[in-house]
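@channel anyone free to eyeball this complex?
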Amino acid sequence: MCLGIPGKIISVREDYVAEVDFGGIRREVSLFLCPEAQPGDYVLVHVGFAIQRLEEDEALETLKLFKEIQESYLEPEQENR
Amino acid sequence: MSLSKRIDEEKFAPILLEEISGYANHPLRLMEVCGTHTISIFRSGIRSLLPEAIELISGPGCPVCVTPAGEINRAIALSRLKNVTLVTFGDLMRVPGGSSSLHRERAMGGDIRVIFSPLDAVEIAEKEPNRKVVFFAVGFETTSPAIAVAVKEARRKGLINFYLLSSQRLIPPAIRALLSSGKVNIDGFILPGHVSVIIGRDPYLFIAHEFDLPGVITGFEALDILEGICMLLRQKRQGRADIEIQYKRAVKEEGNKKALKVMQEVFKPVDARWRGLGLIQKSGLILREEFSRIDATYAFNIPYEDKADPPGCLCGEILQGLKRPPDCSLFGKRCTPEDPVGPCMVSSEGSCAAYYKYRVQ
Ligand code: SF4
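replying in thread with the prediction:
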């Protein structure tokens, strides 16, 4: 349940809401817990909230692997979502 | 992608593996506290690559698994009240409370909805002012700041129909309880990465200082975990016990201060029951007084009724690292992910579900 997914901030709205790209899928994410994050930054996202900024190289690596995690791990969990 | 495929791509993995396989000293039991690590370890096949002397044991780090049946029952009782909409994370739906589950209640007509973000709960309350919206919130420190933000947001919007049923748990007190019980032999900890994004390194220092054991805050990829294990072995070799951070790209020593602040504004620690581990001091979170109006336990006055674990289910021992899922006589027979008996088989992060999925006998 503590899964964190890395994504890239595309744009930031005034009220701490960012549009974040997760390898092609875009979602709104709250920046309330990570207000210093800027467009272009990679952030770790958990239950709709950015919880930390990530170093870019490392985030790309994690993003690459995320697809694999999604296949084997996320999908069964989403049954109920 | 299997680990072996990744090894071709990475220069790093063979070096790590070589270092690990060089370890042939006396047996070493390392606990991965976090359920997300358990899954990642199984998925990547790391277990099969380790020398026999190194044993990985799964700990209590699955929020769904450690939620006692009594708390699930309380949520079920709430969902049966008139005008109540119960919202929660999907992982909780199938957990047996005793005679029922939220999933079953919903099938019988209960207004129970699955949300993705705590802010969804606030949105539902705002859109449906004639419903009493109760957010049944489970989670560790990773999730609590987001839950705290939702509570503050509901207040900012002046919603009078938003309530919280808090079943949140804190990781360091559970580790302390495990170590203090003296029941389980642990030589080092693979510490949770995302809990630590929030809390940082300091809350684990007691593991090194008081129990003289090493711990490494570790990320979730196969390489992260291999490196985390290497860092633990190095500490062992050098006779050190320290708390180190492998997952540096996400974890700062001081954690996420903003997140800690909002969490502390809204919640305070309270003694809490854990499935398997019993009552642990200051290991849960409840709303501070100024928010107690929205505390569903008071607002609806539902008595707490615990239920013993289903007969034969070893979840309690498994969560403490005392038993392994195949030790349970129901494992894979009466208890499967399709028809789970205990919570460790329900949750996708539960040890039983992980063992079953990856068929480790
Ligand atoms: S296999 Fe099922 S019954 Fe046995 S310990 Fe795991 S969850 Fe409980």
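from a first look: Chain A touches chain B at residues 1-4, 30, 32-35, 44, 46-49, 51-52, 54-55, 58-59, 61-62, 65, 68-69, 72-73, 76-81 (CB under 8 Å).
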